[in-house]
Amino acid sequence: MALVSAAEMLTKAREGKYAVGAFNTNNLEWTKAILKGAQESNAPVMIQTSMGAAKYMGGYQMCVHMVEDLIESMNITVPVALHLDHGEYEDALKCIEIGYTSVMYDGSHHPFEKNIEEAKDVVAKAHAKGVSVECEVGSIGGEEDGIIGSGELADPAECKAMSDTGIDFLAAGIGNIHGSYPENWTGLSFETLAEIAAVTDGKPLVLHGGSGIPVEQVQKAISLGVSKINVNTECQEVFAAATRKYIEEGKDLEGKGFDPRKLLAPGTEAVVELVKQRIEWFGSKGKA
Ligand code: 13P
């Protein structure tokens, strides 16, 4: 199946009160693991690259080819969108041109007027090519790829203005942060989420920083309009833990255990399992 835009899968998720998992890929193993997890769960899925991860993998065009070719060689039949995560304006336009089927233009660090103006421009160019668009209001806290946000609760009036630009789905800060949550984290603000949902006309909402949020909070957020949940750190953690175990057990020293195809297999399988578990949490299992 060819890559699809995320607009339809997220509209269906919003109506059906479940969320689509958006998993960040970092390399070939990750990409295969996300596709395998989604296929075994019969779930729609979004594979996303940060700007930094795409650069690491050899550039945006390489990512398009990798995901498209794996979909074919792995006989993937569930809907898959390839999405740019936290893109600058120029990067969003480049991805629209070369085959990403969904982009996030993140202008949340700009003055609000500029964020809105550039969002409108990205929407026009993306929609002309059938590409879906996510934008952000109120920065998401934590650190990701060197971009540090202080974390805040988005202003519902700004969310409405951003939603009205014609974007397909909206990321808004509701107390969520990227990376691990600190011990003194006070949890998601469901009050803010409900206020945002009330003024954005049923638009799918996006929960960034999906790693480490208790399942009850995740599911409550879904019931209030969250339809896309981003997960990155937890995949990295389970991959690292499984790889560490393999090496600490000396398996890399047995026979040809040092072959990267063997060395990276436990970590890859751990990502598959996490993807499948999160898909269950999000309620998108069987929704392909
Ligand atoms: P985590 O790394 O906290 O899972 O967040 C991922 C994310 O929101 C990507 O945009």
UniProtKB/TrEMBL annotation:
GO BP: fructose 1,6-bisphosphate metabolic process; glycolytic process
Stated name of the protein: Fructose-1,6-bisphosphate aldolase, class II
InterPro entries linked to this entry: Aldolase_TIM, Class_II_FBP_aldolase, FBA_II, Fruc_bis_ald_class-2
The organism of origin for this protein: Vagococcus fessus
Keywords: Lyase, Metal-binding, Zinc
Signal sequence region: none
Molecular function terms from GO: fructose-bisphosphate aldolase activity; zinc ion binding
Positions annotated to bind Zn(2+) 2: D106, E136
Residues that bind dihydroxyacetone phosphate: G179, G209, G210, S211, N230, V231, N232, T233
Required cofactor names: Zn(2+)
Pfam families per UniProt: F_bP_aldolase
Domain of life: Bacteria
Active-site residues annotated for this sequence: D85
Cofactor: binding comment: Binds 2 Zn(2+) ions per subunit. One is catalytic and the other provides a structural contribution.
